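Limitations

Structures in this collection are predictions, not experimental determinations, and the ligand pose is part of the prediction. Treat each record accordingly. The example that follows, with glutamine as the small molecule, is included so readers can see exactly what is and is not provided: the inputs are given verbatim, and the output is the predicted complex.
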Amino acid sequence: MPAARTITALAKMLRSGETTSRDLCRETIGRIRARADLNAFITVTEDAAFAEAGRADALLSGKGGGGATTTLTGIPIAHKDIFSTLGVRTTCGSRMLADYTPAFDATVVANLKAAGAVTVGKTNMDEFAMGSSNENSFFGAAANPWDAGTVPGGSSGGSAAAVAARLLPAATGTDTGGSIRQPAAFCGITGLKPSYGRVSRHGMVAFASSLDQAGALTVTCEDAAVMLDAMAGFDSRDSTSVDAPPPCAAGSLDQTIAGLTIGLPAEFFGDGLDPAVAASVQAALAELEKAGARLVDVALPSSENSIPCYYIIAPAEASSNLSRFDGVRYGFRAGQFDGLAEMYEKTRAEGFGAEVKRRIMVGTYVLSAGYYDAYYLKALKLRRLIADDFARAFEQCDVIAGPTTPTCAFRRGAKMDDPVAMYLNDIYTSSVNLAGLPALSIPAGFVNGGGGELPVGLHLIGPYMAEAKLLGVGHRFQQITDWHERAPPGVDGG
Ligand code: GLN
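Predicted complex:
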């Protein structure tokens, strides 16, 4: 099997003179065009990418005026189309923003640019990051490279499909209830959701501000660490950004896991979990045990309430955040209307898709004077209980493990008429956002998905700000297994 073209591998090739950033860029854009069937990209920024790659090549060859290089210098990456990009349209997967071109870069975009990464485009996503299948995109569904009849997961589905199909080594994503980890699991790649506050939300189109967090989708944990180190950092433009010491994740990957305690919550292995997925996860845990980890039982009793709690808090915040799309301040405005009120109504009726409207209506309802106490306030209390469970569990273990999702990737269209079935995809992931913790999904085997083999994700959850520890455990797992190196049928590893 050819070695995967990871960030780390490409960085070496750039330094040995085996390739240049411009060559990588040309190749990447060729791959993106050749896999138009995946619909992984909304926008490809070819000209800007070549200009950035040229600057990176000058730096790498020492002719760039002596600027410093990083592991990311000259590496092609893509951004989920939720991140504002200066001069490049940022749609958030919505008709509402289909023609919106920001006048600034999101902090994540700026940080990765400063590290020398070359942006080749913006990836497909569920509208306003609401969804688990990428089928809610105004720009059409994206496909899972393992089986085009299945979904890549969502909402960062385009980023996951692009990395899984080896179009490029890394892409950014956002995770409000599972949107980095679930598509990473469905596409057989690594997905990191950092601690809340670790990575700036400035310039990220807001869905549910107390839950949203930016992270990365990569082939390996080693690369996820490189991405996190570049993305993270205090930002005075995000009032919830945390002024913490840098994660230094890439430098602390080589940890032994001998003596590490892994907590297994019974709640993550109960009803609704596909037995084949459970078997893969158990086998992965046995590998970690063989490598010296100790498996212990822990309890997360309130996690059974995480989906109802999430589907009150997230829509509540979304209904407020999305009020700014009024036909005046950003993007789309209805063509025909009679007066201001009708302009608002028609703009929002025509600009938003069905799922977004459903969330706005639920959110407005749970925040309304008559129902605030019964729903929103109650959900806030549940949120506290969920966070307390994790705090107690981490007194007994270093990390928590389980499946990322209850099933592997499902067929396109299978859950579009059943929102609750769609929401249940996040049954293991959403509690992590409610508690603000970091978590990782890594490839841990395959199950027979009907049409062929489909990937399974192992979910690792850590204490607040413990990304380096999580990535170290994931890295160890990737040293003793090769699930992450498997590429989808027809895709060469390199
Ligand atoms: N699937 C969840 C939702 O639709 C999570 C989305 C996300 O994490 N952005 O809200």
